[in-house]
Amino acid sequence: MPEFTLRIRRYNPETGAAPYWDRYTVDLEPHRSVLEGILQVKDRFDSSIGVRCSCRAAICGSCGMTINGKAGLACHTHLSEAMSRSKDGTIEIQPLGNMPVIKDLIVDMDAVHWKKVNRVTPWLLSGDLPEREHIVPRESMVDVTQPMACIQCGSCVGDCLAMEVDPDFIGPAALAKAYRFVGDPRDVQHEQRLKDLADDPHGLYTCTHCFKCIEACPKGVAPMNQIMRLRRIAGQDHHIEDVNNGERHEEAFVVLLQKYGLLSEADVVPRSYGGNGLTGGKLSPKSGEQVFQSLPFLAKAVLRGKVKISQTLFPHKLDSESLAEVKKIYKDVKGREERLELNLYITGYDEDGDPTTSEAIPDNPNEKAGATA
Fold first, then answer.
1. What pLDDT is stored for residue 347 in this prediction?
2. Which of 126, 230, 248, 300 has its CA 20 to 30 A from that of 239?
């Protein structure tokens, strides 16, 4: 029987002692899960290890933890898979990040995860009820099937880099839950929801597009994608100008890339605070104030060779042929009658090109959900 070494982080806040690591060796087949290894350790060596688990089938979301630096479900991670990510021949197991530890591998989900989910009003806000039932387009319900697949395991929260910097960030799981209702045509307060999340200084525009939540999610919810869709709906559909300048900041990137083919960093701040008019926001009092506040950072960047004054005053441009290719992309995208929303549950194919098994709300029992793409 193969043997695997588990290195488990131990910590009990009630004792006042510092965290420490314990090593245990388990004998299990490589296809067995990391959770089975932990439970064998509890059974044979130390029953005091704190771990939360229930279904053992990647459904309940209870056994979220960090395994060899990556958040995920212990019951959904094979020992062989965990070993493939090991640097020293051991499987390192610790609690999820960004949440306080109750004991060993158990984190306080109420203090962070559920608090943030409650922040986004996670229920349907319906208007006048119909006499019989709501008739909802099939595509709309298939669309929200992706965020509905979330099992609230907290893996995305544990690996979120934005939450490490800003613990008050609403977070990927809660914002994915928000899209579940913004994408539901029965909800009558889409604009109010979006305005609330856009104006929150720790809301929509705090996400840094690091893709960590997409990698961590065991159910393909892709929380970052849902956040980007919330932004597009807020800015392009409802034209919400938020107090954080998030919408104008994103628009500045779009305009600059279309104009130069490259990002002109010196123009980002003026355009973000002053708009994208003829002067590029340079004459706006708000942009002037932000530029002035940025001078100490700019001076350091110049002294360290990270920024050149010439490049700031005269932005780089792509060559005419390459710039024409960029402009063609813009023309093609803007020329579409409808905005293309990439969603696994609608397209019906994953990144490997295999048809999804989702049969959500089919018109025909023999038809895959992806046939509506």
1. 58
2. 126
